[in-house]
Design goal:
alpha/beta; Rossmann fold; 5-stranded parallel sheet; 13 helices; 50% helix
Length: 286
Amino acid sequence: MRIQIDADLANAVFTLPQSGGAFDPDFFAYLQKLGQQRRSVILAFPPKAAGTFLRSAAINVIGGQLMRIVHAYGGREASPYLPALLRYLSGDPASPTLVTHVHMQALPANRHFMDALDLKPVIMLRSVPDMLCSYLDMLNSEPITPELWVNSLIPDNFAALDGDTQADFIVDIMGPWYASYFATWLDYARQSPARVCVLRYSDFKRDPVMVLRTLLGHSGFESSDFLCRRATEIAWTERALLRFNKGEHGRGAARFHDGHLARLETMLVRHYGLSAYRDDLLPAIS
């Protein structure tokens, strides 16, 4: 497919940032101006936190279109792909709004990227044991493919492992990713509160319409209770297709033993100091 681009856009695509991800000041200014031309909805949720559900509802409200902003998935967490965003931002302003859902950490290079393009990501806080429990359900119900990995190889025989071995694997291998996810994003949110919108799963369960309006407002889109309520009702009827599992609070405490929960507490509280978010991330820990 042939794409027409001007010299400035070509330079932006092919000029590498610094090794840490920071852009040259001239390119940063160019990218900021380009990024402010079109709004987007960036759901940077962790796996199993209702991201697919809310993504679908947001598309319904604003007439958006699901677009991929990464080069490829294939077993790795998301890293924004500059050509994909530049193609959208420089495209027809009358085309559908970009809506995307990516599992990524707020690592320094990703922060530079989002700052440069004036992206306004949204994240979700949910109990890590509950999300890992839901992740286990997914791995046991679907063929093991790289699309189900997040920077961690999932063994092909995972579904055949006994329950204790599966629990050990998901806590020891996936738990650190979730801990780093929340540590990086909550640090970014403290530094740039106007850029990062922090949602809570408990609020989503209690009032999904309010949560949908909040994420759309943060992304720069006005909406109404009526449209958001209709969109969430439609998404609910399609929840099986959207990989919405059970959404129950406390499932992780029943699935994992005290040793598993203690290891997760060590990762989140001792190593990353997230005690202020303990009730959101570790409600099962006494």
